[in-house]
Design brief:
Bound molecules: 5'-O-[(S)-butoxy(hydroxy)phosphoryl]adenosine
Oligomer: single chain
Number of strands: 30
CATH class of one domain: Alpha Beta
Helix content: 25-40%
Largest sheet: 7 strands, mixed
Strand content: 15-25%
CATH architecture of one domain: 3-Layer(aba) Sandwich
CATH topology of one domain: Rossmann fold
Radius of gyration: 24 Å
Mean pLDDT: 96
Strand order of the largest sheet: 5-4-17-16-18-19-20
Amino acid sequence: MNNSLQIRTFEEYQEKYKRSIEHPELFWGEIAETFKWQRKWDKVLEWNFSEPKVEWFIGGKLNITENALDRHLATRGNKTALIWEPNDPKDDTVRLTYRELYEKVCQFSNALKKQGVVKGDRVCIYLPMVPELMIAVLACARIGAVHSVIFAGFSAVSIADRVNDAEAKVIITSDGLNRGAKQVPLKRIVDEALELCTSIEHVIVYNCLNWPTEMKEGRDLWWNDIIADESTECQAEMMDAEDMLFILYTSGSTGKPKGVVHTCGGYMVYTAYSFQNVFQYEENDIYWCTADIGWVTGHSYIVYGPLITGATTVMFEGIPTYPDAGRFWQIIDKYGVNQFLTAPTAIRSLMAFGEEHVMSYDLHSLKVLGSVGEPINEEAWNWYYVHVGKERCAIVDTFWQTETGGVMLSGLGNLSPMKPTFAGYPLPGIHPCLLDQEGKEIEESDTEGYLCFKAPWPSILRTTYGDHERCRLTYFAYYDGYYFTGDGARRDADGMYRLIGRVDDVINVSGHRFGTAEIENAINTNSKVIESAVVGYPHPIKGQSIYAYIILDDATSDSQLARAEIIETVASEIGKIAIPEKIQFVSGLPKTRSGKIMRRILRKIAEGDVSNLGDTSTLLDPLVVEEIVKNAL
Ligand code: WT7
């Protein structure tokens, strides 16, 4: 392991932090020196937030997989890189050493090349949480193809949107997946998606379930067939530090999900640096993150961060409640997990099953407990700290985003002071601030504001694929000279940050991000719908849940039937994860005279707080509010 990267005390953190802000180029240049480059950079950083243009390690050449695999072979060739735990505890574990993972990645890299994939081509990956997902991601990176992983819970229409936007040449999938007691036919969903796509030349299918699978002659290929004759050595493509590494689609407050672009050099440096410091990983530790590789958490903290560090990373195919609510704790016990990263929504749902499940397992191996994806409420924090961590583990509440590539605000293992519900301090190199309504920086403590960052860090997004202006407008145009997160935060007298939630039209359901407009557009594709408005409201387990107010074209139609149809529409346009929990049919929506929907009022009604809806007399139709309140769910 790259010990030189590891901060060992809180005082050392404070010194490093100061230096990183005063001399960012020296600071990151020294860190980058510890990685394997095929050519050293000429300049560490050039940037402006007005275009925006951010470039790190300019002129540097590297391949991220040489850092994640090749450079470990001499010293860690026989160390376990990946422990894969199947959905069903009765099935066999897979363990791959660094050498075995290296060989599998090389072999699949060669197979991709054979199918005509070259540097710069986009490859979509729609796979379950099986080792082949990690292998496919790394194989793309090895040959310089841009991977775009699509979470295997998205619908055919969502796949098509992503494939088309990225103009992907190849998509990699499997016959189906296991998730708890359910199976999902992934290849069939891909086939449906591809009816809406023209760029795909090949579909590579991994056999997970031995299901009878229709294969289209000339287009579809079995994973096992195409690797059969390939060598287990493959020269890594030489990449520019600023060449694209991957695209990951994520929702925003407007329009369709956008493709967040990350590049090779900065992403490599920052994911490894943040991994090692946030989790305080030591050479023989076993690290487990429960996220899916379909989200950024899995990219940065199952695949890249841990592997570049030379860690042993656990990957789990299943869900927290199958076959029972002790599954997470059983896996920690089974492998002696030392660092564990999960989401507040998982903690809250397991809390509801009671402590007995935690008590049945030996969790003494745990040192650091991570939380990610949404604000963690005090009750969940305490439960995690007391019942899982036995009051002796550090809790790190890691705040970051798909766009930031890596953790921005968090404690560093047990080095930092802990305060329940506070993400805490910025990592070295991260320069947060709070802005007020006018865009002025708030200097006082114990105040709330819009969370922004003042300067770039190595893994900041570079663009949104195919639409740079959208990137500028979404993140850099609200406040001139700042990256705007879309989150509200509070800073206390100690300078620690506490996240409050999104301040834009983004809803976070169980850590999954959706735009209200995205869900409305999906609902509106149903021909019975005239108009809809979607808001988020607090939910005890999911964090937030979705409430849809819908105007039907025929108010007398069977509302049960309409509801079922709308649910079906959302499931097929986006995926089951975006189905509104509450659907209220209304005769009108509260609008201003200029026709803007008053979401503030709808949010209050969804929250069940109708005591102070503000002045509704200026609305186009004030009576409609009364009707909505009367029938609220
Ligand atoms: C949004 C980003 C971070 C990777 C997983 C989600 C919310 C994330 C925290 C946290 C409070 C958090 C924010 C952010 N969020 N982590 N520790 N405390 N809120 O990535 O899908 O890009 O979502 O998740 O609202 O903006 P994402």
